[in-house]
């Protein structure tokens, strides 16, 4: 995963949910947890 892709996910932009799997592996988190975090980040940026 490129640094720009990682930054995009942190900003709440997840064009392809499959991108979250490498993040989950790198952070040693389950996919469901990283997906929840991505949704929370997206919702936080929208306010």
Report on this structure.
Helix 2 (20-27) crosses helix 3 (31-46). The protein starts with a helix and ends with a helix. Helices cover 68% and strands 0% of the residues. The chain is mostly helical. The radius of gyration is 10 Å and the shape is globular.
Features:
3 helices, mainly alpha, 47 residues
Approximately how much beta-strand content do the residues carry?
under 5%
Number of strands: 0
What does the average pLDDT come to? 79
Largest sheet descriptor = none
Low-pLDDT parts are none
Helix content: 55-70%
- Gross geometry: globular
Total helical segments:
3
Would you tell me the structural class of the helices and strands? Answer: mainly alpha
In angstroms, what is the radius of gyration? 10 Å
Distance between the termini: 27 Å
Number of domains: 1
Order of helices and strands: HHH
